[in-house]
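User: ok so my PI wants both of these folded by tonight, can you help

Assistant: No problem, let's get them done. Here's the first:
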Amino acid sequence: MRLTVNGRNHDVDAASDTALLYVLRNDLELNGPKYGCGLGECGACAVLIDGVAARSCVIPIEGCEGRNVVTLEGLGTREHPDPVQDAFIREQAAQCGYCLNGMIITTKALLTRNPHPSEHEVLEALRYNLCRCGAHIEIVRAAMRAAGHALEARD
């Protein structure tokens, strides 16, 4: 099976019903998407498929053939991060960082379809991405920064 991931074609030798997450992490050695719940509920495994955020732990690779898959590694580089990645860095929007992949991917998908979302729209987009550390305020601030907004400091 041939997959296009981060702009490169990869021939993958795996069963067609193998979850995309396992191929990304185990075969392609991409560690951006994380294994969280394995049920598609937490968002840690999110990737972009044709520009839409998707939970890679529940998507079989057969559903990705002929589509463009982008992982966290495909957004930018250490030297030239994507504007969303840069905003998360500037806002220090992480504690443990486990949820960060999903938060960044979901924010990127939101900004692709709506370049200037309101804070409410950001909160709605991120509501199904779980963060156990409590970095939600910084994450929302980072998403708003990436959208070109600045939030006032809150007490």
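One down. Here's the second:
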Amino acid sequence: MRETVHLGCEKCNRRNYHTVKNKKNTTEKLALKKYCKWCKEHTVHKEMKL
């Protein structure tokens, strides 16, 4: 069962990316290192509520 999730920057808390994850295989929150255009640097982006 795949579900759309939004990724938000840890520094500025803006939602910059969205992706799809499998809820059955990945039960913990997703955290990826992505570029934030507002912070102008690579930061950790964590899964946020919709």
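The chain has no helices and four strands. Residues 2-48 form a domain with the Rubrerythrin, domain 2 fold (CATH 2.20.28.120). Good luck tonight!
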